[in-house]
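Journal club side-thread
Mid-discussion, someone asked how the predicted structure for our own chain would compare to the paper's figures. Pasting it here so we can look after the session.
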Amino acid sequence: MKKNNVVRIEKNWEETKVLLISDLHWDNPKCDRALLKKHLDEALAGNHDILINGDLFCLMQGAYDPRKSKSDIREEHNVANYFDAIINTAVDWFTPYAHLIKLIGYGNHETTILKRQETDIIERFVTLLNYKCESNVQVGGYGGWIRFNFDDGSSHQSFKIKYMHGFGGGGAVTRGTIQHNRMSVNVEGADAIWMGHVHEDYEMTYTVEELTTKDTVILRDILMIRTSAYKEEYGDGSKGWHIERGASPKPIGGRWLIMKPYRDEKTSRKIHAYTHKTL
């Protein structure tokens, strides 16, 4: 269910596993589709939700795009109706997973096409996917919120994720962690802050001090999550734009988010959450 820029996902009071992925660049020949399919099939086998945080598509081979290169277009997309071909083939490819995909957000690749070509690729893709599969995939934003609401029959506890596709560069040393520092200043109330964009992979825990309405000081953990990409650009390190700009090899894949609802010794309802890299 979506309200404004918040997607709410209802869950029973039980351990829940979610596939977090971003920067698929699905239409790029360098996308590792075999690995992506492996991870999506794992979600399918376990009936786990899937969340996509931007740059599902690459979209750089359209007319008048200064970034285009003949070597970076797949044969089935090398046609006059380039964007239509990407949407149609993607709908067929993602059909087995449509009922598990809860959210698809925008990345800079999709917003660039909206600005330059005046067509909304994500909205078109999701509309066609939902029509074909009778699914309920929600279109997110470049940033927004996801609330997992766990119900134990008498009450509930939520786990709130602030997602943002990302901004700036990763940095050879910081690997994008500075952006999480900045987000932590701007965002309150999140249990996790999730970004992609810079093709790095990590989880960090920030612990903050809070004062309750009963004047009790508590410490609360916030997960800082970064998901990488499925486009492998480094290769053997011999040539290409990625090499020429001095970029390093990048990890490939996403992360699994595990949320475990429980009651502590004071019978307070809580969610223990952590992530690990996809294999």
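Post-session note: The chain has one domain: 2-277.
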